[in-house]
Amino acid sequence: MSGACILCPSFFPPSSQSDVENASNMALLVRPLDECPDYATACQLDLPGNRPLEETPFWNAQSAVQQAICTSVPFIKQRRTSPQHLHHDDSTLSASTNSSLIDPARRLYPELVSEIFAHVHALAPVLRRSDQISHTVACVCSTWRTIALSTPSLWSTIAVGSWTADPDAYLSHRIALSGSAPLDIWIIATDQVLHWCLWRLLRQASRWRRVVLRGHDSVFRMFPVPQLPILEAAFIDIDSSAVQAAEAEAVPTLTFLDNAPNLRTVSFGYSSPYVTYGAPLACQSTLTAATFIVLEKTLEDMMYALDNLRALEQLELRLRARGGAATPAPPIHSLLAPPAPAPPLAPATLPGLVTASSTTETTRQPPSPAAILPALTCIVLSFDDQVFPVLDYIIAPNLRTVIIRDAGQMQ
Q: Which domain of life does this protein belong to (predicted)?
């Protein structure tokens, strides 16, 4: 059999028996559906960023289906109490005596199909989550299209890059279909596009959940300080090759994160000594993990920004000399996923460590300013060709683990 539109009522004839588990095993294998009556119409959808369907199974589809079924069916049954619905439940959820490969999945509740879409979307890599999955399920048949367009989480990942032909139409489309769902925003584009997109999304700031941004430092300096009540993670990569000393007197770069009370993770990278961190971060009570690329000249400035981060447990510093080569940014597709630390070259566990020197000199008292990090338990340091006395700038009474690795490992 070629591709099957498993939710299209006109494609499969009715059956006296059905098995949700058997049907769901094939529910998310999406292919060009030449035999589907709605396929020709579906292919003509005018959706910004639409791409050809690919003959490939979804990311971890079976796991997502099973999770959706387990979590959704009881909730749906509570909402369906009429005799007709109860009869439908009995016929739909009963175990099939025949091991049919595909039972008529048209019997699945639309709510359940929507949950399956949402789980698959959440498990997928960011590139597929931002475009391929949402458009693929919307192009299968009229039933899937209706369900997909009414599932806000399918459209809640916004990714703008060089491949985006019309950012205006793309953003309008995503904002409209995502409803009130939290947004994951990824903008890796020119400074002009980044500036325009940020201002375009400013009205949706209350919905920002995770952001990945790359652009010139001036774009962030000129951006206002929005209210970001649900922002959990921010990955900011400053393209600072053109940053000049005259710009250093402007508003510090991290200021636009000051109103993010639930920020847990921040990653901030740059390569210019003129980029400044400014005053201590406002998210002192919530930040638990941070990654910074640090130049020798800006080490004290960065420590001042981190001062009194009471909840910070893990800190990673990528240090290099003033003329050192830029540390490659991590793969963009991994930035919105839960962080997984790379294996260290030579981990060193130091029980009871309070402060120490990363050079061969005698341990000194912490200079001023020094970052007071009472909850810090682990610090990861990577150096280029020069070792900085980083630990001299940190007061961490609960520090237990120091990991030192070669900066080349970051590649």
A: Eukaryota
- Do 407 and 382 touch, CB atoms closer than 8 A? yes
Contacts 24+ apart (CB under 8 A), 395-401: 395/354, 395/355, 395/366, 395/370, 395/371, 396/353, 396/354, 396/355, 397/354, 398/374, 399/350, 399/353, 399/354, 399/373, 400/349, 400/350, 400/351, 400/352, 400/353, 401/347, 401/348, 401/349, 401/350, 401/377
Note the Cα 102 to chain centre separation in Å: 34
pLDDT in tens, 177-205: 888 889 988 888 777 888 888 888 888 88
Closest by CA position to 380, among listed 327, 329, 353, 341: 341
Distances (CA, A) of 360 to 357, 385, 387, 389, 391: 7, 15, 10, 9, 12
Query: Among residues 344, 361, 359, 411, which one has the least CA distance to residue 390?
Result: 359
- Give the integer Cα–Cα distance in Å for 359 and 95: 68
Number of Cβ atoms within 10 Å of the Cβ of 327 = 18
Of 62-66, 110-114, 309-313, 330-334, where does mean pLDDT reach its minimum? 330-334
In order, the DSSP letters of 256-302 are: GGTT-TT--EEEEE---TT----SPPS-TTT--EEEEEEEGGGHHHH
What is the rounded (10 degree) CA torsion for 11, 15, 19, 25?
Answer: -20
Q: pTM above 0.70?
A: no
The two three-digit tokens of residue 50, written as one number: 């639409």
Helix (H) / strand (E) element for 211: namely strand 208-215
Give the pLDDT confidence of 231-244 residue by residue, as tens digits: 888 888 776 554 55
Please check whether residue 264 is in contact with residue 287, taking contact to mean a CB–CB distance below 8 angstroms: yes
- Select from 241, 243, 296, 289 the least CA-distant residue to 268: 289
What residue type is assigned to position 173 of the chain?
H
- DSSP-derived letter for residue 192 is H
Residue 361 CB neighbours (<10 A): 9
Residue for token digits 């090759």?
Answer: 241
Two structure tokens written together for 53: 């369907």
Helix (H) or strand (E) holding 236: strand 233-238
The beta-strand segments (E) located in 11-62 are 29-30, 56-57
Which residues, in sequence order, are CB contacts of 79 under 8 Å at separation 6+? none
At residue 81, φ and ψ (nearest 5 deg) are -115, 0
CA atoms of 138 and 80, how far apart (whole Å): 26
